[in-house]
Design a protein that fits this description.
Layout (H helix, E strand, L loop, with lengths): L1 E5 L2 E5 L7 H9 L4 E4 L10 H12 L9 E7 L6 H7 L4 E6 L19 H10 L2 E4 L13 H16 L5 E3 L5 H9 L4 E5 L1 H5 L3 H4 L16 H11 L6 E3 L8 H4 L14 H11 L6 H6 L1 H5 L8 E5 L3 E2 L4 E3 L2 E3 L7 E2 L2 E2 L2
Parallel strand pairs: 2-3, 3-4, 4-5, 5-6, 6-7, 7-8, 8-9
Antiparallel strand pairs: 1-10, 10-15, 11-14, 12-13
């Protein structure tokens, strides 16, 4: 069985930097034609000079003639100026990413409360830059499984009331609550959904022992949440589209007493999504989810070219080279039933 798609977009991808790019860029261009690259490096990508330099480091790993375009974002920090945003779109920046301080990997430079940055959000609203949101509160008293729902009620709803014309993306949604909220909004809000949140619930992380390679932020949720995400992804609703949040870490950083959050799905992105959509008897909806709805929201043309998957059994690799070490990819060593072949 063969499945032919328009070359997809990944609207949420971590490529990292330095030696990691040899792994991540090569994997990405085998799965998608464009990827929106996250800016949470150390130091954060929060100036146009940093964006330009990072783009060039990425492009240095794209073979000549390869069909891959990195789409760039800025990191919302105290040092980001309104003047920078006025010139950002002209220099190819699509969006600004807000990481609440302490919410996830490399979020120490993030902003805990947006009140001080309202002038920046006003400029974004005027120039048409999209606000990308890691939608979790970080207060210690809030249960980790409730942080997304609390964020929607306590932060996102007031924020959207204050900036109704600011286009936003609620990244990597994980709950039925998030699905319902996005559906309730008529304009200027969309959401990305990852493959790992579509495939598994929190039992996969915790039952039978803690499995660090399923640990991600936002954390996996209940089965009813997973089913709501699947229903949203296959529904044909243009407000939901593909964003992997693929996030590589060296094996030693995951398999430790304080393991890092992130699942490396980027080596087999479309194989994972294809299995989700097949199980839901909705393979005919995958092309729109992966290659059209995100492009429409970001006001980009559809990609040219095709990606071909074949339904056949293959074994996912146990490890992958990662600079001078290795990483353990998502579902390492498992047998899978879809594979990109062209």
């Amino acid at each position: 069985m063969m499945l032919t798609l328009t070359r997809p977009d990944d609207f949420h991808l971590h490529l990292r930097d330095g030696q990691a790019l040899a792994r991540t860029v090569g994997d990405a261009l085998g799965q998608c034609a464009r990827a929106l690259v996250m800016p949470n490096l150390v130091p954060a990508v929060d100036t146009l000079e940093a964006v330009s330099a990072y783009r060039q480091r990425i492009l240095a790993h794209v073979p000549k003639g390869a069909d891959f375009t990195p789409l760039m974002s800025l990191y919302l920090s105290q040092t980001l100026s309104p003047e920078t945003l006025l010139h950002a779109k002209a220099q190819g920046v699509l969006a600004v990413k807000w990481y609440p301080k302490g919410a996830t990997t490399n979020s120490a430079q993030g902003v805990a409360h947006l009140e001080a940055l309202e002038p920046i959000l006003s400029v974004m609203q005027e120039v048409g830059l999209i606000l990308l949101i890691h939608g979790e509160v970080t207060e210690a008293q809030v249960d980790i499984f409730a942080r997304e729902s609390c964020f929607i009620e306590e932060v996102l709803i007031p924020l959207r009331a204050k900036f109704p014309r600011l286009k936003m993306v609620l990244e990597h949604i994980t709950t039925a609550h998030a699905v319902e909220y996005v559906r309730s909004q008529e304009r200027n809000l969309a959401a990305t959904i990852t493959a790992h949140h579509l495939l598994f619930n929190r039992n996969q992380l915790l039952v039978g022992g803690i499995k660090p390679h399923f640990y991600c932020l936002p954390i996996l949720k209940k089965e009813e949440d997973r089913l709501a995400l699947v229903q949203a992804a296959v529904s044909g609703d243009r407000r939901f589209f593909l964003g992997t949040d693929s996030a590589p870490h060296a094996r030693s950083a995951k398999e430790s007493a304080c393991g890092c959050a992130g699942c490396y799905t980027g080596y087999a992105t479309m194989a994972f999504y294809a299995q989700v959509f097949e199980r839901a008897q909705a393979l005919d909806k995958l092309n729109d989810f992966a290659a059209k709805f995100g492009a429409e929201y970001y006001e980009l043309p559809y990609n040219h070219g095709e990606l071909v998957l074949e339904k056949r059994v293959w074994q996912l690799p146990e490890t992958l080279p990662f600079g001078d070490t290795v990483l353990v990819p998502f579902l390492a060593g498992e047998q899978w039933h879809w594979q990109v072949v062209a």
